[in-house]
UniProtKB/TrEMBL annotation:
<feature type="region of interest" description="Disordered">
    <location>
        <begin position="376"/>
        <end position="404"/>
    </location>
</feature>
<protein>
    <recommendedName>
        <fullName>DUF2461 domain-containing protein</fullName>
    </recommendedName>
</protein>
<feature type="compositionally biased region" description="Basic residues">
    <location>
        <begin position="85"/>
        <end position="107"/>
    </location>
</feature>
<feature type="compositionally biased region" description="Basic and acidic residues">
    <location>
        <begin position="34"/>
        <end position="67"/>
    </location>
</feature>
<dbReference type="Pfam" id="PF09365">
    <property type="entry name" value="DUF2461"/>
</dbReference>
<feature type="compositionally biased region" description="Acidic residues">
    <location>
        <begin position="68"/>
        <end position="79"/>
    </location>
</feature>
<feature type="region of interest" description="Disordered">
    <location>
        <begin position="1"/>
        <end position="122"/>
    </location>
</feature>
<dbReference type="InterPro" id="IPR012808">
    <property type="entry name" value="CHP02453"/>
</dbReference>
Length: 404
């Protein structure tokens, strides 16, 4: 700002070297421009060097003489344009922040990049886990790698979205995708076995049978986002009657009806009240008892045969005498039998054959239960009416939905 004012004063007091003092008429534009150009060339070695000097420099010394400044050269539009460009460049440089890497993040990134090796068959690439190369099995079998992955999901430290993302983000082959495909191939081999044992079960593709690994945590106190097991279900006419679950140390195969709907439960109890002989005969068969336990409630309330589920009624259902001879069956709301397998049995190459033998023993119970859900037996021999049963005082001692 100081330079501009000083130049303006110099132009007002110093006469131009190319302007004639005798003529008061202004020169033509072309001639004036030519005179200014020649004046700028003459003062190139002298006047221009002084323009580059800082007017504030040399305070305390001898003050510069304004007469040595060529006012016509200073009034050139090119000079003003250069000053504007320089100011814009300086302002842009100040406004642009310099991005510097955070020391902590850079250090962690360097440490993760240095991680390499083969620990437990898992290769670490940075922070992303690649699927193990060893221990793989042909389609239709379960490997130890899949059990290891599910075992980690059982640990709350690993069952979170960040850890899971690292196991599905590998550009080569993610751990989760390999385990998921292995279970899908296993179910694909199991489908024809199920359809062979139970002809009413349609042979559906695995994607229609396997549950997603993501949990619905909206109404649950347990906020872990992923299941700790793989699971598939086989059903006929929309009823889920067979379950297969894969879990380290707790793999299982179950059959029956889990928490039956009110209409289904009412039909089952009506058939029991009329004639429970078929159901009693099925659950008391020697092979069934050998696999699932004795056909009566466990003294300590444990799971045994079709008994021992947590949702069973504590008292008799509404309208049923608490001393009814089939009260143990009438209290049930879940009708499921289950057998578990060790990890060694799951990893066995002949595990599918083992499942076939279990399904053959389980099938009569599943068929009986499906019939009791939909068909009311008209044969009343040995049976009693549902509305004729009362407790000892003539009052209902429980309710289907509220007593637990």
């Amino acid at each position: 700002m100081g330079r501009t004012k000083r130049l303006a004063r110099a132009k007002a007091t110093v006469p131009s070297a190319n302007t004639s003092s005798k003529s008061s008429k202004p020169l033509p534009k072309k001639r004036a421009k030519k005179d200014r150009d020649s004046s700028a060339e003459r003062s190139e070695g002298e006047g221009s060097s002084r323009l580059d000097e800082d007017p504030e420099e040399g305070r305390g010394g001898a003050q510069r003489e304004p007469e040595s400044v060529d006012s016509d050269a200073l009034d050139d539009s090119d000079f003003e344009e250069k000053v504007k460009v320089q100011k814009k460049a300086q302002a842009k440089k100040k406004a642009t922040p310099v991005k510097r890497p955070v020391k902590g993040k850079r250090k962690r990134a360097e440490e993760s990049d240095e991680e390499s090796g083969d620990e437990g068959g898992v290769t670490v690439i940075g922070n992303i886990v690649e699927a193990p190369k060893e221990g793989r099995v042909p389609p239709g079998r379960i490997s130890q790698n899949t059990l290891n992955f599910l075992g980690q999901l059982a640990d709350p430290e690993y069952n979170d979205r960040e850890w899971f993302r690292l196991n599905v983000s590998s550009p080569v082959e993610p751990v989760f995708r390999l385990a998921e495909k292995e279970f899908s191939d296993f179910i694909e081999k199991l489908v024809p076995i199920v359809s062979e044992v139970d002809e009413e079960v349609p042979p559906l593709p695995p994607r229609d049978l396997i549950y997603r690994i993501y949990r619905d945590i909206r109404f649950s106190n347990d906020k872990t986002p992923y299941k700790k097991f793989f699971c598939a279900t086989f059903s006929r006419t929309g009823r889920k009657t067979k379950f297969a679950g894969l879990k380290p140390g707790g793999s299982f195969l179950a059959g029956g009806g889990w928490q039956c709907e009110q209409s289904q439960l009412g039909n089952i109890r009506t058939n029991i009240l009329r004639n429970p002989s078929r159901l009693r005969q099925v659950i008391s068969a020697p092979a069934f008892v050998e696999l699932f336990g004795e056909a009566k409630p466990h003294p300590k309330g444990k799971r045994q045969n079709i008994f021992g589920h947590e949702d069973a009624l504590k008292v008799a259902p509404k309208g049923v005498d608490k001393t009814h001879k089939d009260i143990d069956l009438l209290k049930l709301r879940t009708w499921v039998v289950e057998t578990k397998f060790t990890d060694a049995e799951v990893l066995d190459p002949n595990f599918l054959d083992h499942l076939r033998r279990v399904m053959v023993i389980m099938e009569p119970f599943v068929n009986c239960l499906n019939d009791m859900m939909t068909i009311i037996d008209d044969d009343e021999d040995g049976g009693e009416g549902a509305n004729d049963e009362e407790d000892g005082n003539g009052e209902a001692s429980g309710d289907d939905d509220d007593d637990d």
